[in-house]
Specification:
This protein is an alpha/beta fold. It is built from 13 helices and twelve strands. The strands form two sheets. Strands 1, 2, 3, 4, 5, 6, 7, 10, 11 and 12 form a ten-stranded mixed sheet that branches.
């Protein structure tokens, strides 16, 4: 089974060498390496070319079109049965591919999720598959928790992290790939939901290991991340969720907002970390900008929703939320910088 490793780069000079060095050591014979560069202005391309690896094919863009656009273009030119999305700020274990692709012998498996660890603290989980919150936001399962027995077992999850996930290429293309309007963040949710709503499972494989520098390209708590995470979770909500759940989602968003405000007060969690360099005013301004963008693009979003609703039964979203839930507290208050909250 051939695997196409797809890497989207943007000013990745600081990390791409370690990534490709680890990829070259993979214990698997049948794979290719495809790289889409989003108009890097550093020496990313020069570093890639210095490897002189004939397996590597580079596609260059003249301007930054975002992660989804790049991954979709690589999927189109790939020749493998399996598409392996990989961030440039990762280092992979030599058995990363071998331990993942074995699950594709089951025809109902469309995706496989790796065990992604923090590169600077490999005792902590970045993502053991992704989970879904009822207002459309997602978070990695076990994010910022210590590795324990629960994360060493193979199990079903909602979908993989885009930083290291495996997809059946034929299905990825059949379902239209990633929504390119997302640009950053939430794009793995978009393609993951497409697979799930069409009846394909995602398996978490703990022995498919990747080490990740979390949010290297945008910063862990930056303005750009805050904006796109909120904007794109609303797009997920409006594209895929049935009307009844959209109505209830406002209550879940308020609950999540409560915990984010609590984070600011107690100095722990995502909002507290954002406020080290930002402000509450700026954060809420970004939220309003995200909602304004949604309003301006509402016609296109609803047109896509109508097309999706013709093919998919709405109740599947409710089933996903029941099977792969995450709490508002866990989203807002897990704190990598101050240790892990074990009582969630």
């Amino acid at each position: 089974m051939k695997v196409s490793i797809a890497i989207v780069t943007f000013n990745s000079a600081a990390v791409i060498k370690d990534c490709l060095t680890s990829v070259e050591k993979i214990d698997y014979d049948n794979f290719e390496i495809l790289i889409y560069d989003n108009a890097s202005i550093d020496n990313t391309i020069e570093i890639i070319e210095s490897f002189g690896n004939k397996r590597i094919k580079i596609v260059r863009s003249y301007y930054n079109r975002g992660f989804g656009f790049g991954l979709n273009r690589l999927a189109e030119i790939s020749t493998g049965e399996i598409l392996a999305s990989l961030n440039p700020d990762t280092v992979v274990d030599k058995e990363w591919i071998k331990n993942a692709v074995k699950h594709f012998v089951s025809e109902d498996v469309g995706m496989v999720s790796s065990r992604i660890l923090f590169k600077d603290n490999p005792d902590l989980i970045d993502s053991a598959g992704h989970l879904l919150y009822p207002d459309g936001i997602n978070r990695g399962r076990g994010h910022k928790q210590r590795v324990c027995d629960a994360f060493l077992k193979t199990t079903d999850v909602a979908f993989p992290s885009g930083s290291a996930g495996f997809y059946r290429r034929e299905l990825f293309l059949k379902f239209g790939g990633i929504d390119e309007s997302f640009f950053l963040f939430g794009d793995d949710t978009d393609i993951g939901i497409k697979f799930q709503l069409n009846g394909y499972r995602c398996i978490y494989e703990p022995d498919s290991i990747v080490y990740h520098i979390y949010s290297h390209s945008t910063g862990k708590y930056s303005d750009i991340k805050a904006y796109f995470v909120e904007r794109n979770r609303v797009r997920i909500l409006l594209k895929y969720f049935p009307t009844r759940l959209i109505g209830w989602s406002a209550l879940y968003t308020l609950k999540r907002a409560f915990y984010h405000n609590l984070s600011a007060i107690i100095g722990k969690g995502d909002t507290a970390n954002y406020l080290k360099n930002g402000s509450i005013f700026r954060l809420y301004t970004l939220m309003l900008m995200a909602y304004l963008d949604t309003i301006l693009n509402l016609q296109n979003i609803l047109r896509t929703r109508k097309e999706i609703s013709k093919k998919i039964r709405n109740r599947k979203i409710g089933q996903l939320l029941q099977r792969f839930p995450i709490s508002a507290r866990e989203i807002a208050l897990n704190d990598y910088s101050k240790g892990v909250d074990h009582d969630i």
